[in-house]
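Please check both lines for our workbook:

___
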Amino acid sequence: MPTTDTHDTHGTPHPGSATQLHMSLAETATAHNYQPLPVVLASGQGAWVTDVDGHRYLDCLAGYSALNFGHGHPRLTAAAQEQLARLTLTSRAFHNDRLGPFCRDLAELAGMDLVLPMNTGAEAVETAIKVARKWGYERKGVTPDRATVIVADGNFHGRTTTIVSFSNDPVARDGFGPFTPGFRTVPYGDSAALEAAVDENTVAVLLEPIQGEAGVLIPPPGYLQAVRDVCTRENVLFIADEIQSGLGRTGTTFACDAEDVTPDVYVLGKALGGGIVPVSAVVSRHDVLDVIRPGSHGSTFGGNPLAAAVGHAVVELLRSGEYQARAAELGERLRTRLEDLVGHGAVAVRSRGLWAGIDLDPTLITGRQACMRLLDRGILAKDTHGSTIRLAPPLVIESGQLDWLCDQLGEVLARPAG
């Protein structure tokens, strides 16, 4: 693997380099809502990306799972290019010939009836909340304007005003009040606390089957089934936010499949657009989504022909199960290699499929420092919550590349930060 074709010292670009020029421009003209690593990417293919100075990197973040199928997947780019030449947008004021096939096949993949297409993940979460509230009033008989949704500590469902209202991340919340009411928070992984929080106004439980932003937190065995049982018993919708965990990432089509659990509503995004266009969706049954009627919800770009064409191609890739099986097989290899690092700079590892959270010893190195050192070695990864790094390589990564990634991480952790 190319370990010399990277920046010289801790990801710091050379003065006057193309990287430095682009970073300076972004610093001047872009709002500072992110703190990216000092790398400026210009092209990508498969699991690899190349920056503006010609350095190659193994992409081990994959756009927070938006690039499950890698950069420039030929079937996805072909679908996009073909559609670009035909028709890109009609709005939902008219039908288009790509929407029906996409929604039909996505619903079939999820074992559901209907699809409500949107664009971004946060839009899909907002849509699911609206659907749940309307379902509660029309189907469950909840008193108007009293509906509540149960959520979990440590959640990350987006950053809209409503969504940050039930976040406990101070960075996402501070300065954005007043907050939207109607949410009740319980500890993640505690089904007894969840059950105790249900009352006559509860319309839904909104959960990530695996909490991604929190550090790839995997709930205890049986938790998802217990949530399913509570929701069924109490006539409450189980909404599974599979925006990061779904569509092959964890070794199954959906993370809920690990416990053979089917929620009432799937919230999907990221990988659904193949890393090409924003595509998200709420997928459910007739009795849930039929509460949405003309004029009650919509989006100018939701279900546009280009998005539907790419989304349909993604569904086709998942039909064979090849990518799910690949994530499961390589995920076992990744888990074994990462667990060998516990006690050698890592204090804990959590993984499911090709998705891992590694807690580092904060007395030795921070997550940011580790990511900067990995950048030096030609690997892109992301830190979270100070001393944790996340790995989510594209599902097209090769076993040798995965081993090289683990070798480099081991060498980074073997040298305490100075």
Summary: DSSP finds 13 helices and 15 strands in the chain. The radius of gyration is 22 Å. The mean pLDDT is 96. The longest strand covers residues 202-207.
